[in-house]
Every structure is written in C-alpha cells, then in structure tokens.
C-alpha cells in the first residue's frame, strides 16, 4: 500500500472511532486534535497530530502549542512529547494516531504528575488595564439617545404602559393587502 492509501484508511477509521466524541477535532484530512481530560480539569491537555506526506513510514508531527495548553509548563509539554515520540518509534510504519491518543488518555496522570493543579481565577476577578478616563468615556456612550417631547409623545401613543409595542403592531392585513395588489393586477 502507498502512504496515501494508508492515510485514507486511517482517516476513515479515526472518523468512525471518534464520531460524536467532542474531545476529537479533525482540523484537516491530515491534522487532528484530541483533548485529554475533561473541560475545567487543570490537568487536561490538547495534543495535535499532523501527517507528513510519507506518514506512516515517517513520524507524524506532534504538537502541544495549542492555546489550550498555555497553563502547562514547557518542561511538562516536552516530557509528554518525548514519551509520545517513544511510542511513535515503536509504531513506525503502522497507522498510529489512534494509538498515540489512547496512550495519552491511558497515561494522563503519569504524563501530568508534575503539573500543579492550579486553576486560574474565573471571570469575576479580571484586572482591566487602562485609565479611568477610558472606562468612563465608554460608559457615557452607553446612554440612551435623547428624544424630543414630540418623539416621546409619538412613542407613548404606540406603546403600552410598560413601553412595549402592542402585539401585532407590525402585522399586515392580508385581506386588504391582497385586494390592493389584486386590483393592480386587474388594471
């Protein structure tokens, strides 16, 4: 079999195995990502595997450069890559993407044992950078447009006591509409 045929067969196998698995992403027919661990898990990480033209006779390109991995130290990323490359050497010449993803899943705790279980603070504790003047000017832009007394009166005539337009205010009377368009057709 040629490398292309091997890749086609492995691509079909990966699609059927990981169908419906939210942790698997096919970035292209020769590039895949798999998230090891659950969302919110401080020891979760993302592996990206890309196939060169001569794969599986040559090693795939394995990357951990995804933004998802920003909290993982570079030494741990390198350690994971080294262990995955050991698996690559053992499986060279065979379809190995599934094997690599499964190896990472099975050995997640071992691969991430030195990664601290630190969770970054969430949304409420954001620190904003900028001067107070910038913040206040953006608040001023959020004010509602000033209406004249006439505009307010017209709006009040259209709306109910809660300021909402009545149900059906923009409905078209189908009978009148059809009779108007029908009479134009007759002329």
TrEMBL record:
Q: Which InterPro entries match?
A: RWD_dom, RWDD4, UBQ-conjugating_enzyme/RWD
SMART domains named among the record's database cross-references: RWD
| Pfam families, per the entry | RWD (PF05773)
Basic and acidic residues bias: start-end ranges: 154-165
Provide the RWD domain boundaries. 9-111
Region span, Disordered: 121-165
Q: Which PANTHER family match?
A: RWD DOMAIN-CONTAINING PROTEIN 4
Q: What is this protein called?
A: RWD domain-containing protein 4 isoform X1
- What is the species listed in this Swiss-Prot or TrEMBL entry? Alligator sinensis
From the broadest rank down, the organism's phylogenetic lineage runs:
Eukaryota, Metazoa, Chordata, Craniata, Vertebrata
């Amino acid at each position: 079999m040629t490398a292309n045929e091997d890749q086609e067969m492995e691509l079909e196998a990966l699609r059927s195995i990981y169908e419906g698995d939210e942790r698997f992403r096919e970035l292209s027919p020769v590039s895949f990502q798999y998230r090891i661990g659950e969302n919110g898990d401080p020891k979760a990480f993302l592996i990206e595997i890309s196939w060169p033209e001569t794969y599986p006779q040559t090693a795939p390109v394995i990357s951990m450069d995804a933004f998802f991995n920003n909290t993982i130290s570079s030494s741990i990323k390198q350690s994971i890559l080294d262990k995955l490359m050991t698996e690559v050497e053992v499986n060279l010449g065979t379809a190995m993407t599934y094997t690599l993803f499964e190896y990472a899943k099975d050995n997640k705790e071992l691969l991430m044992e030195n990664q601290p279980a630190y969770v970054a603070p969430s949304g409420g504790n954001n620190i904003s950078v900028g001067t107070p003047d910038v913040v206040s000017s953006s608040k001023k832009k959020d004010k509602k447009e000033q209406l004249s007394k006439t505009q307010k009166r017209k709006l009040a005539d259209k709306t109910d006591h809660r300021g909402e337009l009545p149900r059906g205010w923009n409905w078209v009377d189908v009978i009148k509409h059809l009779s108007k368009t029908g009479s134009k057709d007759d002329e």
